[in-house]
Amino acid sequence: MSGLAPNIFAASVSSASHALALAAPSLAHLGALDIAVIAIYFVMVIWIGFYLKGQANTSEEFFMAGREMTAWIAGLSFVSANLGSLELMGWAGSAYQYGILAAHWYWVGAIPAMLFLGMVMMPFYYVCKTHSVPGYLKLRYGQGASFVAAVSFAFMTVLMSGVNMFAMAVVMKVVLGWNLSFSIIVSSLAVAAYVALGGLRSAIFNEVLQFMLIWGGALLVPILGLVESGGWNGFKAKLAHNIATGLTPAGDYTHMWRSMGHFADNPMGIHWTGIVFGLGFAISFGYWTTDFLVVQRVLAANNLRSARMAPVIGSFFKMAVPFIVILPGLLGLVVLQNPDGSLMHLVPQNLATPESGLHSYNEVLPLMLVRYCSPGLLGLGITALIAGFMSGMAGNVSAFSAVWTYDIYQPMINKTAKDEHYVAVGRWATIWGVIISIGTAYLVMSMAGIMDYVQALFSFFISPLLGVVLVGMLWPRATKSGGFWGLLLGTLTSIGLWAWVKADPAALRYVALSPDARDMAENMYRALWSVIVSMGVNIIVSLFTKPKTLAELDGVVMGATKLPVEEPVPFYKNEWFWTVIAGVVFLALNIYFW
Q: What NCBIfam families is this protein classified in (predicted)?
């Protein structure tokens, strides 16, 4: 997700435009077999769009895939839409820099929220038959809160789609020497074609294909890296030797919680309270339960049980993603070598200039691909990266199309049009969303520092939205006024804290409650404060204003909604059984890497 992208990658994307004037040579050259693999991939994704065009004739089919997706397809699409360019490249680089601490964003920063979405929130999203999260806000709080959420979400999705385009072009330039505009235009045309033709159904089926390709193309790197390192224990022994001899900066690269007791004890400058409450609750729950980009995939499920199972299925694959993202970054610490056989040292983006001949942290995954992949396999690996970038783009564009049509165009511009008119609006919104995204990609390229603002804007809206949705869904007493003021003041709190630290960096000690806190901690504590404010204001204002009756809240609030009774199934098909299994695996991973 783009929204959970690491700061080191996000902040460096703009400055990369300067580095990517790149007089530096590309890392690899594709053979005929590699080019054939990539060409086949592009033909397949566009063919899927053409093939599914006949199944996207009504608005329900175009925007919600006819609500016919099985739990497995919805679950894989749910995870794949999150595997964008910033996700793949950024976290591999973070793992090289910070060690296994980066896996927090995949485990505590994702799994509890995904399970909560499936077991607690999804029944209400699904039963009320909303087409979007802003649509849910309209049912719960009225048009005002829904419109604000829809506009901010539409703005953020096209912005992040453009960032994905530019990030992909950066990688193709670094790895293959491709022209930036060529990469942006080709990928955006392909995404526009298959989403505009087949709607959400086409996006979902392509995301499943892309998910398979990402795993197929990236799996060889950690496997061969572990073989070369002598397994996990061999890797740890080599890393310890490198640290002891001064080849690698000192630090605990293989444990997740031991150094979290104090801000100064770990390279991220984060305390465990920030990880658990800031990342694990405010940011993670905000993204996985209220960001329509991912929730839309689950809403397309064919029944309530599938809708609840989809995030649970996705959680298992999410827990496994560090194997192809975090592990290659860690292995890079011991296996990447310079041409003379010495250990390669990657550096921050601002130091990786063409003149220096150095590579940045963000290049660790392409470097590992080039190290282990022969012709044909390299093409598959590059295709995996392109698939990751395009799934992120398609996710943003398809979500933008639905929110624009259902939550902005229909209620504000044309309430009484025929169904086929809204399908046409959705197709045009897809095309315009891609065009705006292309413009955004060039904006990112030309304006240094814009990614900092994009990340900040994203955080302004997601965390307060969580507070409003959560209180509204779980507490019948919450009122229209409470929701509006909670969302407004929660957002202003986030903006205010960001501006305070921007104007006076020393203010971070007050936001994160420690003089040793670093940049990474700011986002977590700012998100936590904004959720607290949005929930607190919502509750206080609601206590002094008139609530809706329980009958008016039927279908959208716990305690006022009679959920449908599900048919009994064997235990191995029961969503609660797999939720418990996912929880046990999640705990086991954290204990093993404690």
A: sss (TIGR00813)
